[in-house]
Amino acid sequence: MKIFNTLTRYKEEFVPIEPGKVRMYVCGPTVYNFIHIGNARPMIFFDTVRRYFEYKGYEVNFVSNFTDVDDKIIKAAAEEGVDSSEISERYIKECKKDMAGMNIRPATVHPQATKEIPGMLDMIGELLKTSHAYTAPDGTVYYRVRSFKGYGKLSHKNLDDLQSGFRTLKVTGEEAKEDPNDFVLWKPKKEGEPYWESPWCQGRPGWHIECSVMSKKYLGEQIDIHGGGEDLIFPHHENEIAQSEAVSGKTFANYWMHNAFLNIDNKKMSKSLGNFFTVREISEKYDLQVLRLFMLSAHYRSPLNFSADLMESSKASLDRILTCMEHLRDVLAKAEKKALSAEEEKALEELDALVKKYEDAMDDDFNTADAISAVFEIVKLANSTVNEQSAKQFAAKMNETLEKLLYVLGILTERKQESLDAKVEALIAERQAARKAKDFARADQIRNQLTEMGIILKDTREGVKWQRA
Ligand code: AMP
Ligand code: ZN
To answer: d(Cα 104, Cα 45) in Å, to the nearest integer?
Structure first.
């Protein structure tokens, strides 16, 4: 398997630290609102990476955090007049619902920053002891970037270039920094903010320290893969390397993987630009399986532009897959075991070649776009070769193979049940139409059907209302 490593900028052969095992860490969302579909891109992609490693026989330990203490969470809490933990817990719950909707499996562990403060205090203490960090008079603890020789190696930046960029920029409150690139490990609390006790001041952690601490705690000092969106390369991941490697003296992560942005009108989709759709909004219009297929239809390192046209085409693609799977199941239910025909023998050879095509695509830096093309070639093959006369084992092989390959992509092979509400609404609309057309027999029939479903109708001035009996 080859993986493009941001650190070296090469596609490299994947060699795990421990044979047969993968330890991976992916930076998760800051939970102050519903996640948007830009946030969903790394979630869907790295879930697929995990599934493909498992398909190849690896055991994967997959850690992804929730950042649950942050300025944006504190601001949201102040606006609602509630505790910041109420905001973060609420949106962690909502995020998990969205993940389930997108068929993203829960990580092995989902640590939360606020539950890992003691580990952060320890690591900051270590960094101070080894002079990789220093305290300012107000109790802020800064990381001393000049103390870490490899600083800039991930983002391919040079500290002197970075510093000259800062020359004209004086940031008030940060005069105590030795170098403008030094970053906060711990900062004093402000009025009304959540805080924890520490040897330096009552306060809270900077953002970067949590990932170094959680990665070490749940995966060990050295991991195979660290991932996230490409906006995290600098400074977040650069700073994680500086923290972790200064403490351990060892390589923190062997492979750094970064997904490109999900754009809208060719601009990054983000909360701050206001040009975003939440996953929840999309779920009102589409089955989230459509979103998943859309996301994987491009290579993860290519920017992907969100558009209604592309979503409609993913919807049609998903439908083609599901129709094929239904057909396979129908045939399988009735088919009998018998000797394979020559045509079937030939189709199974083609199937093997297409599975190989799929695996080659995934082995080549997780090229999900090409893997999906291979799946569609298999769908076409199945549609043209599986029929009422097929041998059972032939139909079964087609079915199993598609199931297995689609599982890796996280595409479910059964149509989702239409929600009960949608069904009720549709029946009510049909009844209204029947009444308008003076087809009272049909209207009564629908009313009876709804009664059997436990739905009571009430004709009101504003139209027909319904409730459950
Ligand atoms: P945040 O909550 O902003 O820290 O983001 C959580 C994850 O989503 C990070 O890995 C980000 O890099 C990623 N992300 C945010 N916006 C986008 C986007 N428009 N496209 C792709 N990834 C994104
Ligand atoms: Zn992180």
So the answer is: 9
Ligand 1 touching residue 262 (CB < 6 A):
yes
| Total domains in the fold of the chain | 2
> Cβ distance 47 to 409 under 8 Å?
no
Q: Kindly give the number of the ligand 1 atom that is closest to the alpha carbon of 31.
A: 2
> Which ligand is nearest to the Cα of residue 31, counting in written order?
1
Residue 426's domain comprises 421-468
Same domain flag for 403 and 325: yes
Quick one: pLDDT band at residue 359, thresholds 50, 70, 90?
Answer: very high
| pLDDT tens for each residue of 2-17 | 999 999 999 999 999 9
Tell me the pLDDT tens digit for each residue of 83-137. Answer: 999 999 999 999 999 999 999 999 999 999 999 999 999 999 999 999 999 999 9
Report which ligand 1 atom has the smallest distance to the Cα of 26: 10
- Of 373, 389, 409, which marks where a domain is finished? 409
Q: Which of 231, 300, 301 to mutate to test the pocket of ligand 1 (most atoms within 8 A of CB)?
A: 231
Identity (one letter) of the amino acid at 89?
E
Answer yes or no: is 209 within a domain: no
Instruction: Give the model's pLDDT for residue 167.
Output: 58
Identify whether residues 396 and 335 lie together within a single domain.
yes
From the CB of 228, is ligand 1 less than 6 Å away? yes
Q: Considering only 152-166, 201-215, 252-266, which range has the smallest mean pLDDT?
A: 152-166
Helix, strand, coil fractions of the chain, as percent rounded to 5:
50, 15, 35
Q: What pLDDT is stored for residue 163 in this prediction? A: 75
Alpha carbon distance 133, 140 (integer Å)? 10
CB 276 within 8 A of CB 24: no
Please state whether the peptide bond connecting residue 188 to the residue before it is cis, i.e. omega within 30 degrees of 0.
Answer: no
Which pTM does this prediction carry? 0.89
What pairing do the DSSP bridges indicate for beta strands 141-143 and 267-268? unpaired
What distance in Å separates the CA atoms of residue 466 and residue 469, rounded to the nearest whole number?
Answer: 9
Q: Say yes or no: CB of residue 39 within 6 Å of ligand 1.
A: yes
DSSP result, 147-173 = G-TTTTTTTT--HHHHHHHHTT-PPTT
Integer Cα distance of 289 and 274 in angstroms: 25
Q: Distance between CA atoms of 108 and 99, rounded to whole angstroms? A: 14
